[in-house]
Write a structure and sequence with these properties.
Radius of gyration: 21 Å
Strand content: 15-25%
Structural class: alpha/beta
Number of helices: 12
Shape: globular
Largest sheet: 8 strands, mixed
Amino acid sequence: MTSMNLSPNGEPTLMQSLAPALRRDRMIIEYLTVAQAAEAGQDVISGLSQTPKSLPPKYFYDDRGSLLFEQITQLPEYYLTRTETAILTESADAIATLTGPCELVELGSGSATKTRLLLNAYRHQGCPLRYLPVDVSGGILEESARQLLTAYPGLSVHGLVGTYEPALAQLPSSILPARMIAFIGSTLGNLTPAECDQFLQQISQAMTGGDYFLLGVDLQKDPAILEAAYNDSQGITADFNLNMLHHLNWRFQGDFQPDQFKHHAFYNPTHHQIEIYIESLVPQTVRLQALDLTVQFAAGEALLSEISRKFDLNQMTETLKAYEFDVVRTFTDPQAWFGLLLCVKR
């Protein structure tokens, strides 16, 4: 960590006085209680029993699904990751300047690749470094935390393994003067409007006045660009989508035949969202033994596996106001394809 000077009156600066507390416990990984109903697959039973059928996007992510998604982020058609990374590369110093000393809470931290851009900015300004990653994968969280501790000797990490709701409710007390909750990667777009409202309410309740919220959102644009991003020429997105069926087979003793389904994704201009479906090619019956569930599919019947909503920055600014967030500054790319909103809690 960058050494700090004394304040004008000869006393240690705020950064110096906080540093020992940050260094005492450099890494804590806390496993949160997860709702047993969700773990038992009740969300699968509910989703496959309704009309139209749907499944939660979390079932994309077994080991193979995580690997496929990493491949997706490198595809030429998939602009989201590289565009947001470019924005963060340009804006991280400005964000650190606007917030000042600030501990970083990241929802859905994953490999924490983009997080390093923010940590570099805070380190460059001589700020203490405290990071609270939240992720459902304890293995990925622990591995990324260890890599960050090696790269940032002054960093302390308090990881929370679990879903967003319990993590937000159980955030440890802040050590630094403020905290910033980062929800980047356009994940907000995977939530329905009702789920989005509930999520923003939870974020707001987890914060105090003067805290910051950094939100990444994909923006409305030419539908051809959007549809290409979710229908890549190499078929990686299709493999990722259909891998959900392999995951269900493994996890719940199912007999899905993925080659009897196809990937289908398109832009819905009315709702400003990409809709991703898994469509049955033939009439078929699927059994999930562990859930004691039998599901009938008609030929051409589709289940919704994901939505990806696309936002307007002005509308999002107004939405955030309803949850006591004022947008301090908006960052975007030259083409206005993606946006980062830095907000402060009133």
